[in-house]
Write a structure and sequence with these properties.
helicase activity, ATP-binding, globular, binds magnesium ion, six-stranded parallel beta sheet, helicase, alpha/beta, binds adenosine-5'-diphosphate, eight-stranded mixed beta sheet, hydrolase, Activating signal cointegrator 1 complex subunit 3
Length: about 775
């Protein structure tokens, strides 16, 4: 074991920083050797001095300089952990929390009981944990339980340059927690780490910290990277262009790993497959075999077989107890093929590329070791990118922007950057979200290029022209300024922060958006109910990923949708049926696999249900009520109550079928009118209510592809609306239309204030209240 003090001296050539306490770490010699090469080791002394002397410190350093893996180790060695206090590190991405905790445990030769991670519903934290990696959402939840975060001695906010919403909220909250802990005589250190020098929102914001925190810059040993712009910018086929570029690099340029940046999982797989075909590896190429089952080709074959509409043997759910009875199902299928592209950010199954594939064969004898990398890839497959490629091969990693700053892949000399990123766009006023592939920012393109110069001079091939690059936005705006603020307000209220408008956000969201959201939440009754913390979010992962089991799931949906009044609950009944059926089948991976459900999501739902039933049962036990966690299918009456509850919670998401005057225009055929949009909105083809077209529905979200589609749809009865949502109803003369406005983000014309427009657009049937 090499004592840390020696490390410090060797690395920096400065006199040793003698920590007051020194906890030795027994590192393996090869780990120690690799550490010594990291630029951050040269700054250990100045970092520790700054932390010892200041409550808040900002550390900026190029990706790969060692911030995430080394700073927790510096703190550990300097005695910043004990049985009463731990070091907490937050990451905006789950993959980073898991992978970094593994890496640090390995470097320090410590058990995972001591260096642990916690992401939502999953983790290995124990009583012995001293270094804890977690997602930013997890720390926010902990603040709700213990505002002073008393079990931590240090909190590190990592990847602060990403400006995720939770990171920004955490920094705002910690700016208040740090002085409170100081007053109590139990100081808490806050360290903000960023891959860029753009930290003035944290350091120069007078509302955040009373004293300007010191900024320590880690000089990266970055080698020069030659940037090659394309003369022309390919308009659509950037994936094909990536393929051609990788082929050229591999055939013509000296050894060195290649890293390709694409925008989503399907593109990544498609390119991996093409490259493996072009530069075949020997038969036992484990990299190739590994994700075969996920390949685009497989999915395409599956879809084709589905189109043939062969009769399939499917289990049927007995709704009395959700038991599964195998039966022969007919071939009726709904047309949900039309818009696979509406799925979530990393999850799309875009098959365009696979269709247009050329059978390009290489004359090169050197095999290419091709690995995919994206957030939802299983951790053991992700870990492969850190290992050296098999001898006699060249490494080629095809990644989404997770390889931009979260994970550093060793040995990369060539970067191929398509210049694009898949982003969720959200119109704050209308609530319409859409996923779009757009140009990335200059800052992120430069981060991508930087990946090529870590160990020797490198090259970055940008598949767009320099003129296009000059038009990129400089940095992407903080998430908090771009997304809906309703759940932000509810989170803050759950933390007992009454005046959200006065909260010290590093970059505050627009005051009018906060005010409008607050008004909406009051109209929905969400802010009066002390127990309410927001409508349950269906995560992108849950809604978007069904992979190759989609056809079967579509058939199962009809079974889960139930009969009679249950059907009116629509897509929510389908979800309830799926969860119930899974529960009764013992929630096994096999059941999920066979029925197109995602096993991990089912486990998460199960755990969440467990938490909720326990909480509700503890509140209701005095009244003699008990909820059986083994959920029974709802009765028709219960399903009706559920629809009313959903309506009360999604009051601003009510839609009415187009009526006579709208139907004069063909574009309104089968369309719905929502409160906030002038345009026709349709029930998504994947919805169980797609063909039924009830008069009034509530939806969970609107996604935009070729049209505006509602997802997560349930039917509601019009006479419930004035009872459950009085602020949205008006029985008198219609008000004048508010002037429309233009949303620059989505290019959509929208109407103003929801409540006004409801009053205008709906003359609801008069009912006795
Ligand atoms: P930063 O946080 O500054 O971007 P990191 O601490 O993540 O830097 O990475 C420092 C070094 O550790 C990099 O060279 C990276 O390749 C290496 N590294 C990180 N995780 C692993 C891992 N799981 N296996 C091998 N090397 C790793
Ligand atoms: Mg990092």
């Amino acid at each position: 074991a090499v004592p840390s003090a020696t490390v410090c001296q060797t690395a920096s050539n400065k006199p040793s920083c003698k920590p007051a306490v020194f906890i030795p770490v027994d590192r393996a010699p090869e780990i120690q050797e690799a550490r010594l090469k990291l630029p951050i080791l040269a700054e250990e002394q100045s970092i520790m001095e700054a932390i010892n002397e200041n409550p808040v410190v900002v550390i900026c350093g190029e990706t790969g300089s060692g911030k995430t893996t080394q700073v927790p180790q510096f703190l550990y060695e300097a005695g910043y952990t004990s049985s009463t206090g731990a070091i907490g590190i937050t990451e905006p991405r789950r993959v980073a929390a898991v992978s970094m905790s593994q890496r640090v445990a390995k470097e320090m030769n410590l058990s995972r009981r001591v260096v642990s991670y916690q992401i939502r519903y999953e983790g290995n934290v124990t009583d012995e944990t001293q270094i804890k990696f977690m997602t930013d959402g997890v720390l926010l939840k902990e603040i709700q339980k213990d505002f002073l975060l008393s079990k931590y001695k240090v909190v590190i906010i990592d990847e602060a340059h990403e400006r995720s919403m939770y990171t920004d909220i955490l920094i705002g909250l910690l700016s208040r927690i740090v002085p409170l802990r100081e007053k109590k005589g139990l100081p808490l250190k806050l360290i903000i780490m960023s891959a860029t020098l753009r930290v003035e929102d944290f350091t120069e914001n007078k509302r955040l910290f009373s004293a300007v925190p010191p900024v320590i810059q880690v000089d990266a040993r970055q080698f020069p990277v030659t940037i090659h712009f394309n003369k022309k910018t390919p308009l659509d086929d950037y994936s094909g262009e990536c393929f051609r570029k990788v082929c050229k690099i591999h055939r013509m340029l000296p050894s060195g790993g290649i890293l390709v940046f694409l925008t989503g999982q399907a593109e990544v797989h498609s390119l991996c497959r093409r490259l493996r075909k072009a530069f075949p590896f020997q038969k036992n190429n484990t990299a190739g075999d590994d994700d075969k089952e996920e390949s685009v080709e497989e999915i395409r074959k599956f879809k084709k077989s589905r189109k043939r509409k062969k009769a399939m043997t499917l289990p049927k759910i007995d709704l009395d107890n959700y038991s599964v009875i195998p039966v022969d199902e007919g071939d009726e299928d709904r047309d949900a093929e039309t818009d696979d592209d509406v799925a979530g950010s990393d999850l799309d199954l875009d098959l365009g590329d696979a269709d247009s594939e050329e059978d390009e064969k290489s004359d090169s004898s050197l095999p290419l070791y091709v690995l995919p990398l994206y957030s939802l890839l299983a951790p053991e497959k992700q870990a492969k990118v850190f290992r050296p490629p098999p001898p006699g091969t060249r490494l080629c990693v095809v990644a989404t922007n997770v390889a931009e700053t979260s994970l550093t892949i060793p040995g990369i000399k060539y970067v191929v950057d398509c210049g694009k990123v898949k982003k969720r766009f959200y119109d704050k006023i209308t609530g319409v979200s859409s996923f779009r592939v757009t140009w990335t920012s200059q800052a992120s393109a430069n981060q991508r290029a930087g990946r090529a110069g870590r160990t020797e001079p490198g090259h970055c091939y940008r598949l767009y022209s320099s003129a296009v690059f000059m038009d990129f936005e400089q940095f992407s705006a903080p998430e908090i300024t771009k997304r809906p603020v309703e759940d932000l307000i509810l989170q803050m209220k759950a933390l007992n922060i009454e005046k959200v408008i006065n909260f010290p956000f590093p970059t505050p969201p627009p005051a009018e958006a906060l005010a409008a959201a607050e008004e909406l939440l009051i109209a929905l009754g969400a802010l009066k109910e002390p127990l309410m913390t927001g409508r349950p979010a269906v995560s992108e992962e849950e809604t978007a990923k069904l992979k190759g089991k989609k056809a079967r799931l579509l058939q199962m949906q009809r079974i889960w949708a139930g009969q009679g009044l249950l059907q009116k609950l629509g897509d929510l009944m389908v979800m309830l049926g799926a969860v119930g059926a899974c529960e009764y089948a013992g929630c096994t991976p096999k059941f999920c696999e066979e029925n197109g459900l995602r096993y991990k999501a089912m486990l998460e739902i199960r755990r969440l249900r467990g938490q909720l039933t326990t909480a509700v049962n503890s509140v209701c036990s005095d009244a003699g009520l008990y909820i059986d966690p083994k959920m029974k299918p709802p009765t028709e009456a219960q399903a009706t109550y559920l629809r009313q509850i959903v309506l009360a919670g999604l009051g601003d998401h009510v839609a009415r079928r187009a009526q006579a005057e709208e139907l004069l225009d063909d574009k309104w055929k089968n369309a719905y009118k929502t409160a906030l949009l002038d345009e026709p909105v349709f029930i998504h083809p994947s919805s169980i209510l797609f063909k039924q077209l009830p008069e009034f529905v509530v939806y969970q979200e609107i996604v935009e592809t070729t049209k505006l589609y509602m997802k997560g749809v349930s039917a509601v009865e019009p006479e419930w609306i004035p009872v459950l949502l009085p602020p949205y109803c008006h029985f008198g003369k219609p008000l004048e239309n508010p002037p429309p406005s233009y949303c620059p983000e989505t290019g959509r014309i929208r109407c103003h204030r929801p409540s006004v427009f409801y009053r205008v657009s709906w003359q609801l049937p008069a009912v006795e209240v």
